[in-house]
UniProtKB/TrEMBL annotation:
It comes from the Bacteria. This is UPF0251 protein FYJ27_02745. Belongs to the UPF0251 family. InterPro entries: RNA_pol_sigma_r3/r4-like, UPF0251, WH-like_DNA-bd_sf. It comes from Anaerosalibacter bizertensis.
Length: 123
């Protein structure tokens, strides 16, 4: 029996979930799905400047898992940019961190973004 999959910790959901070319027709084959946990890896490594090990600690997963997700996410983003496909961010195996989670405190430069009662706010 395989080991149960560990849910990845994500600080917040993306504000923008669909990206793509503005010209041309939209075909269902032209959609690429980037999961929320892959989005979080890109955010932490490329935007926040964390190392893979730091990212893994923040997301509560192994460094090898971060490395695999990062590689998959970069391929999807490159496919979207090079081939003019629409990139949608949704799904994945994740859990949103809460404001009291000790590993979340550095997220967003000390500011937190969490959904409470259906609305977003910054603490």
């Amino acid at each position: 029996m395989p080991r149960p999959r560990k849910r990845r910790r994500v600080c917040s959901l993306p504000n923008f979930k669909v990206f793509g070319p503005l010209n041309g027709t939209i075909n269902q084959d032209d959609f690429i799905l980037l999961t929320v946990d892959e989005y979080e890896v890109i955010r932490l490594i490329d935007l926040e400047g964390l190392e893979q090990e730091q990212c893994a600690e923040r997301m509560d997963v192994a460094r090898s898992t971060v490395q695999r997700m990062y590689s998959n996410a970069k391929k999807k983003i490159a496919d979207s940019l090079i081939n003019g496909k629409i990139l949608k961010i949704e799904g994945g195996d994740y859990v949103l961190c809460d404001a009291n989670h000790k590993k979340c405190s550095p997220c967003f430069g000390g500011r937190h973004r969490h959904r409470r009662n259906g609305s977003q706010h910054i603490d």
